[in-house]
Fold:
Amino acid sequence: MTIDESTVVAKRAEWRPSTAKRRELTRELEELIAALDRRVPRVEEAGEAAIARDAAALRAKAFTRLAELTTNRADGRESDSGDPT
Structure:
């Protein structure tokens, strides 16, 4: 059975972490974003452009997920139906 990306995205949208798990995820995402922000590109290194692009994409995804968690908290969503992945 093959699972496409849209199925994973839809399932993730249905999953609501518990309050404790949401706090932990929020803290970890904030730490990840801070670490990526501290990273200094080394332009003299081979492959650095690709690494910088990947880091920027990861930061954007982490920021989006952090916003989702914050929105869910503001909406009062507290249910925990389990991780679908």
Summary: The radius of gyration is 16 Å. The CA atoms of residues 36 and 56 lie 8 Å apart. The helical segments are 5-14, 19-38, 48-75. The chain has three helices and no strands.
